[in-house]
């Protein structure tokens, strides 16, 4: 298989390559095309990948591209992991949000909408290019906000676009790990969950970064009631500690970690305000230092990358954990990745008709009765040579229906704003979001974003 990785100079590329190296199966990826607009970062990533593959046989051939059309020509799959505006853009979103008293997280609320407004034009250009140059290719989207980007891209490429995220898989694994530790799930259940042919059936539904795990069926038995009955086991999971066992039991299911921004909005905004650095500013400084040092010492690039990656994972959602009273991440969660294994499972499933069960971002169809059929939702699917087919799962929890409907309305309004180049629709999307309290602050935040980001000059 041939794979083009868009955002090939991005920091997390070695995670994808590590997974490709571990794959020795027939039909594995034999050519990896790294695609980026920054040649210097491409060279740094190439150095790291060369070090990772040193002394190994049958490694993927690595090619570097700055031209999108040439990069996607003739490949089987395109993996999109872009950040339009870079980490600096994320830091600016957080700064603007703090100026107007809003949450600045990059995929939720103001940050997510701002990110989508500047990133969607590029995502749509990518989809149009693939449709023109290589319409038989499959697009695996990891570019955030993943639900919005996947839905907009589907309007051009249809079912050949599949959105991925690692947070639902991490949630399910942590839940099963807690059950395994108490002998309530068979040993080894956790490891393969959500990545392919696992016998575990996950009852999960929602939108990207806004979903709920309602069931964990192992050998025909739903283990969720056993988990909810044990506060001590719930608090062995990151979500149990983040939300508190009492709140999880009130909900009657396990919420995706990103719902913390909704359920504990004031606490998180306050923790962000008190932090020495926002997440984006921390990552900006960290990655600038890494790329500078790695460029000067290419022989140490892989070592520097691993140390930087480790620190990045240790500080993931740090202000949320601070808002929850302070908690450290479990060692298992510091390994990072997950999306890379999902992407590999999708490629093998489609290219070699090797069915896999995965949680993905796909078209709703009739699954969620209050959303349009073409709205993208996040749900367990079976993937094979024909693409992804959603499983029938429990309805959206009653307590989450209004939130899902409102956020999906916001997402579709953002897409319309980009397609119509409409500032009024951009304001509407911001004002309707549950984490943005009013039209006035929406207008002010958008005006600040337009001043900060030349990418938003298309709005009229």
UniProtKB/TrEMBL annotation:
Q: Where is the Glycosyl hydrolase family 4 C-terminal domain?
A: 204-436
Question: Which cofactor(s) are needed, names only?
Answer: NAD(+)
Return the Gene3D superfamilies for the record.
Lactate dehydrogenase/glycoside hydrolase, family 4, C-terminal, NAD(P)-binding Rossmann-like Domain
List positions binding substrate: 90, 144, 300
For this chain's record, the cofactor binding note is: Binds 1 NAD(+) per subunit.
Q: Where is this site: Increases basicity of active site Tyr?
A: 106
The biological processes this protein is annotated with in GO are:
carbohydrate metabolic process
Where, in this chain's numbering, is Mn(2+) bound? 165, 209
Q: Name one GO molecular function term.
A: oxidoreductase activity, acting on the CH-OH group of donors, NAD or NADP as acceptor
User: Which residues carry out catalysis?
Assistant: 166 (proton donor), 258 (proton acceptor)
Cleaved signal peptide residues? none
Q: Which Pfam families match?
A: Glyco_hydro_4, Glyco_hydro_4C
Q: Which domain of life is it from?
A: Bacteria
Q: Kindly state which keywords UniProt assigns to this record, in alphabetical order.
A: Cobalt, Glycosidase, Hydrolase, Iron, Manganese, Metal-binding, NAD, Nickel
Q: Which InterPro entries match?
A: GlycHydrolase_4_CS, Glyco_hydro_4, Glyco_hydro_4_C, Lactate_DH/Glyco_Ohase_4_C, NAD(P)-bd_dom_sf
UniProt record similarity statement: Belongs to the glycosyl hydrolase 4 family.
Q: What is this protein called?
A: 6-phospho-beta-glucosidase
């Amino acid at each position: 298989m041939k794979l083009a990785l868009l955002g090939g100079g991005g920091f997390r590329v070695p995670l994808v390559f590590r997974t490709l190296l571990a794959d020795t199966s027939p039909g594995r990826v034999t050519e990896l095309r790294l695609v980026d607009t920054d040649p210097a970062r491409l060279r740094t990533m190439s150095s790291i990948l060369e070090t990772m593959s040193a002394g190994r046989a049958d490694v993927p051939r690595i090619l570097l591209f700055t031209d999108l059309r040439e990069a996607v020509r003739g490949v089987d799959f395109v993996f999109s992991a872009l950040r339009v505006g870079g980490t600096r853009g994320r830091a600016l979103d957080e700064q603007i949000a703090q100026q107007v008293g809003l949450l600045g997280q990059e995929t939720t609320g103001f940050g997510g909408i701002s990110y989508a407004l500047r990133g969607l034009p590029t995502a749509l250009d990518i989809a149009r290019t693939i449709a023109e140059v290589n319409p038989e290719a499959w697009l695996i989207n990891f570019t955030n906000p993943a639900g919005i980007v996947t839905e907009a891209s589907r309007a051009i490429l249809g079912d050949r676009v599949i959105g991925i995220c690692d947070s639902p898989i991490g949630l399910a694994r942590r839940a099963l790990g807690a059950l395994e530790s108490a002998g309530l799930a068979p040993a080894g259940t956790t490891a393969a969950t959500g990545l392919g042919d696992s016998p575990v059936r996950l009852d999960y539904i929602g939108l990207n970064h806004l979903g709920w795990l309602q069931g964990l069926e192992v050998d025909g038995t739903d283990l969720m009631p056993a988990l909810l009955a044990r506060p001590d086991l719930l608090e062995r999971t990151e979500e149990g500690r983040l939300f508190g066992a009492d709140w999880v039991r009130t909900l009657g299911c396990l919420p995706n970690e990103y719902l913390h921004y909704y359920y504990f909005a004031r606490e998180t905004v306050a923790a962000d305000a008190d932090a020495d650095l926002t997440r984006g500013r921390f990552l900006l400084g960290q990655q600038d230092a890494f790329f500078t040092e790695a460029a000067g010492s290419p022989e140490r690039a892989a070592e520097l990358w691993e140390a930087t990656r480790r620190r990045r994972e240790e500080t993931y959602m740090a202000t949320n954990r601070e808002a929850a009273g302070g908690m450290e991440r479990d060692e298992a969660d510091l390994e990072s990745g997950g999306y890379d294994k999902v992407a590999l499972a999708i490629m093998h499933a489609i290219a070699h008709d090797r069915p896999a069960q995965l949680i993905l971002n796909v078209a709703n169809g009739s699954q969620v009765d209050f959303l349009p059929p073409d709205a993208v939702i996040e749900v367990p699917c079976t993937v094979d040579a024909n693409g992804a087919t959603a499983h029938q799962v429990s309805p959206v929890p009653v307590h989450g229906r209004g939130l899902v409907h409102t956020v999906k309305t916001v997402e579709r309004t953002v897409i319309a704003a980009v397609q119509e180049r409409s500032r009024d629709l951009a304001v509407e999307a911001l004002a309707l979001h549950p984490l943005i309290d009013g039209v006035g602050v929406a207008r002010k935040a958008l005006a600040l974003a337009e001043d900060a980001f030349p990418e938003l000059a298309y709005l009229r």
